[in-house]
Amino acid sequence: MYSFKGINKSDLTEILVENSFPSFRSDQIFNWVYNNLVIKPDLMRNLPGELQKFLVNNFLMENLKLIKVNKSRDGTSKFLWELNDGERVETVLIPQSKEERFTVCISVQVGCDLGCNFCATGLNGCKRNLTTAEIVDQVWQISRYIDKNNLGELRNVVYMGMGEPFLNYDNLKKSIRIINSEKALNIGSRRITVSTVGIVPKILEFGRDFDQIGLAVSIHSGDNDKRDKLMPINKKYDLNAIKSALKDYYKLTSRRITIEYLMISGFNDSIRDAKKLVDWLGNMNVFINLIPANPVDGLAHKPSPENKIKNFKKYLDNFNIPVQIRASMGEDVTAACGQLRLREE
Ligand code: SF4
């Protein structure tokens, strides 16, 4: 059985031709699935009955069953899905400041082994990687949700949900190709961003594979001792190693890198911390997002107060570093990654 959302159009053409169907049928099927958002073969009216039957018998058209949607007052919606083996993952739909435009934040693993100490996803380890189809289906299901509810347009896809994308690299790669393909979900390269904690050996490889896709790196501290405490992966790939990989990445792609910096009250939000960050950045071409930490059940950290975040930003402004304070979205619907799944379990 093939998972439809895990294959690209040329794979489908090959399968059809091998089974004595004409190659042009793959265009028609992709058009039904990705343009018309129709997945039931018997509704694909321009296909002969024999091909409809072939699709029913050989293709799994959906990989996610919706368990719950939590809607926040600020317009954020959090989706909890069940996979075919009973595991659960989350996807978050976030409205942009321009009305009727949305960003979807997708997951790549069931849980995560990296154990960052501010993150609900890391609390129970990683059960498994998501397949290409399970990753793509999140974007497809959200596109259909937006379409059905007449909400507007899906503009951006960010790989920033559950799990570390660079630890599921093959499926990350294949899913980007399908999400980006004009024949499939057709989200432009510049509207796709992959966020990593800094899995150093993959940074340059990613730049080679996708020089137009955005890269965001979660740094959260310019001080190795503090970062060790927040993110155990720093003991393997520390700030020096990450910086050197980012410099190589920039040389290759000339793409500005987004630095994610979670503002945690009393931990990494002082002017001293801002100075450490500036020192670490040196002359790298970056854009910084300061994000007030989302509170997580069972974890002690709290978001920094507004004035601390503003002072931190002001310090960075002195060095002409492009920086924005990103609103913390969906707090009332447990939008911090992994929380809804944990609560439901
Ligand atoms: S923040 Fe990302 S890398 Fe860290 S534990 Fe959570 S999911 Fe894993």
Automatic annotation (TrEMBL):
Active-site positions on this chain: 90 (proton acceptor), 337 (s-methylcysteine intermediate)
Ranges that cross the membrane: none
Top-rank taxon: Bacteria
One GO CC annotation: cytoplasm
Principal localisation: cytoplasm
Keyword Cell division recorded: no
Alphabetical list of SMART domains matching this protein: Elp3
Miscellaneous comment: Reaction proceeds by a ping-pong mechanism involving intermediate methylation of a conserved cysteine residue.
UniProt enzyme class: transferase
EC code(s) of this entry: 2.1.1.192
Domain Radical SAM core: 98-332
One example of a Gene Ontology biological process annotation: tRNA methylation
Cofactor(s) the protein needs: [4Fe-4S] cluster
Membership in a protein family: Belongs to the radical SAM superfamily. RlmN family.
Textual note on the cofactor: Binds 1 [4Fe-4S] cluster. The cluster is coordinated with 3 cysteines and an exchangeable S-adenosyl-L-methionine.
NCBIfam families assigned: rRNA_mod_RlmN (TIGR00048)
Compartments (UniProt record): Cytoplasm
Record function comment: Specifically methylates position 2 of adenine 2503 in 23S rRNA and position 2 of adenine 37 in tRNAs.
Gene Ontology MF annotations: 4 iron, 4 sulfur cluster binding; metal ion binding; rRNA (adenine(2503)-C2-)-methyltransferase activity; rRNA binding; tRNA (adenine(37)-C2)-methyltransferase activity; tRNA binding
Keywords: 4Fe-4S, Cytoplasm, Disulfide bond, Iron, Iron-sulfur, Metal-binding, Methyltransferase, rRNA processing, S-adenosyl-L-methionine, Transferase, tRNA processing
HAMAP family, per the entry: RNA_methyltr_RlmN
Official protein name in the record: Probable dual-specificity RNA methyltransferase RlmN
UniProt binding sites for [4Fe-4S] cluster: 112, 116, 119
Keyword Disulfide bond: yes
InterPro entries to which the protein is assigned, alphabetical: Aldolase_TIM (IPR013785), Elp3/MiaA/NifB-like_rSAM (IPR006638), Methyltransferase_A (IPR040072), RNA_MTrfase_RlmN (IPR027492), rRNA_lsu_MTrfase_RlmN/Cfr (IPR004383), rSAM (IPR007197), rSAM_sf (IPR058240)
Classification via Pfam families: Radical_SAM
